Backbone:
């Protein structure tokens, strides 16, 4: 049994995809998206995509609404968004569903045993230096290195980042900038060591600098290192140019009050691409700001607004790939067997990069949108009991 799924475009006729299964749905979405123009209208149409399952078939949202109880909306309607995300994930993006678990779960708990990734060149100028739990990236420009994030602590920064530089033939003294995506210690924990040893400029948003300044002192030798000395503030829309590379930063409140997301230009065998880098992925647990001193978030509503804005910015700029600061989210490195780094290493001449695929990028971002909607709906419904686990 097949069904038509309507994408209600704000300024045009509905786009219909005929599908027979979740996999067929994901493939149809990918084909249609790739063939569509990159207009914001169509992007917004996909952001409000809603699909539900009934009797083993996909049912348009409008049909589901017609069968809703006469006394009001279904309080469990938020589960539709989790279903949509599963359809979008198909069988290749299942790890991205971690934020659709209701009640929410600790995404990091899905990692299991923490292992180091081999330092790896991913693009002509972009290198991965991290573990299967948390990431750091090095961008090698014609005038030095831009380092993004610094792992948990000084020991990891020395062993994995600096050790990785040396294995890759990179000079740590060429580290000119260290960009911190947000003020959580699994991202800034190695920064003070790098600051003291190699003296890069450290960049973070002003509001997150203010937040980490309120943290209590760290214990020597603990799991997480101390924050670095405050250096440079990142502003919304700021461009950082070093040599032949320009990064564009955006302040995207949500995961923290001043999370920094960015657009990263790269080349793959001299072919240009643009990566979307969302700076803080775990969805807050309340609609408004919550947390504790030194570790605040801005709430689901701010997170949602930021994500929608950044999605549009990436779309307008022509993003065709994505990376993250936790590799279990973007599948950069999982276990060295079934991840994008492994696929990249196995490429033959002429094979496309596993980090670049417009359809996969769109599905990845839409999964996040559906999970945000699911979490918001769950909170608005009073956090009812449910068994939606992914």
Residues:
């Amino acid at each position: 049994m097949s069904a038509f799924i309507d994408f209600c475009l704000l300024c045009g006729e509905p786009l219909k995809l005929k599908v027979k299964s979740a996999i067929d749905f994901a493939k149809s979405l990918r084909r249609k998206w790739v063939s569509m123009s990159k207009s914001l209208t169509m992007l917004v149409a996909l952001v409000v995509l809603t699909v539900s399952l009934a009797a083993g078939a996909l049912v348009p949202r409008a049909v589901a609404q017609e069968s809703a109880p006469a006394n009001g909306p279904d309080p469990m309607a938020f589960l539709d968004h989790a279903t949509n995300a599963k359809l979008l994930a198909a069988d290749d993006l299942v790890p991205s569903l971690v934020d659709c678990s209701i009640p929410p779960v600790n995404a990091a708990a899905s990692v299991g045993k923490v292992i180091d990734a081999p330092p790896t060149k991913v693009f002509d100028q972009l290198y991965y230096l991290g573990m299967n739990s948390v990431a750091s990236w090095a961008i090698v420009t014609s005038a030095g290195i831009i380092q993004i994030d610094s792992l948990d602590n000084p020991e990891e920064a020395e062993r994995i980042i600096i050790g990785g530089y040396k294995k890759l033939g990179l000079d740590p003294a060429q580290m000119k900038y260290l960009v911190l995506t947000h003020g959580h210690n699994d991202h800034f924990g190695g920064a003070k060591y790098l600051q003291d040893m190699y003296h890069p400029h450290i960049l973070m948003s002003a509001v997150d600098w203010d937040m980490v300044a309120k943290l209590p002192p760290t214990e020597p030798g603990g799991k997480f290192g101390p924050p670095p000395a405050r250096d440079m503030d990142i502003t919304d829309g700021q461009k950082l140019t070093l040599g032949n590379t320009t990064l564009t930063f955006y302040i995207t409140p949500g995961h923290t009050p001043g999370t920094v997301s960015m657009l990263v230009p790269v080349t793959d065998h001299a072919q240009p691409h643009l990566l979307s880098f969302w700076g803080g992925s775990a969805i807050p647990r309340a609609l408004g700001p919550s947390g504790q001193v030194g570790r605040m978030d801005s709430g689901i509503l701010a997170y949602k607004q930021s994500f929608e804005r950044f999605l549009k910015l990436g779309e307008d700029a022509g993003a065709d790939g994505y990376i993250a600061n936790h590799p279990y989210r973007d599948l950069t490195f999982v276990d060295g067997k079934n991840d994008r780094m492994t696929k990249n290493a196995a490429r033959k001449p002429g094979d496309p990069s596993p980090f670049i695929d417009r359809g996969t990028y769109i599905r990845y971002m839409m999964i996040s949108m559906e999970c945000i909607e699911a979490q918001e709906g769950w909170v608005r419904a009073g956090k009812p009991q449910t068994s939606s686990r992914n």
